[in-house]
Amino acid sequence: MLRKEILSKRRHLGEEICQTFGRQFAERIVGLDEYKAADTILCYASCKGEADTWKLIEKALEDGKRVALPRVTGPAEMHFYKITSMKDVAPGYYDIPEPLENCQEEVFEGFLVVPGTAFDRQMHRMGYGGGFYDVWLKRHGSHVTACGLAYDFQLRNEIPFERHDRMMNIVITPDEVIRKGDAADDND
What we know:
By secondary structure, this protein is of the alpha/beta class. The protein is built from five helices and 13 strands.
């Protein structure tokens, strides 16, 4: 029910609002020490009302960072591939922007920007139900700093989670940067 409620709210956000928040998220992220120290930025390509990441992707490319986006390769299976410009991206799985097939350099480590339906202050993430990021993070999570992006209404005090759900290191909202360990009851 929570997933449906939040996705319904998100669907009603206008493109201008998504872009405005996207600029705010990008400014917050590029100000983080973790971003500054990272050679590589792994990021989702926003669509369908998600917290906009296009300004961040453009900024990371301008900053000379290696940038990688996910491409779905099977059920609950995705891999991050390096892009060199926005021309390397086209609609893929469920019309989600993905790196083109000619982008073959796979990336496993860096600063990872993660989408989600909801996040909580204990760093839990509720995805979309496909398990793509949970599976990827189970394999490669020790090599990334995972950062979730959330509109204010996506941040809850507590969300349901399962044992296989992977936790974030940082959650960013338009108003806050929440780091692992900030929560009074950090249960990792």
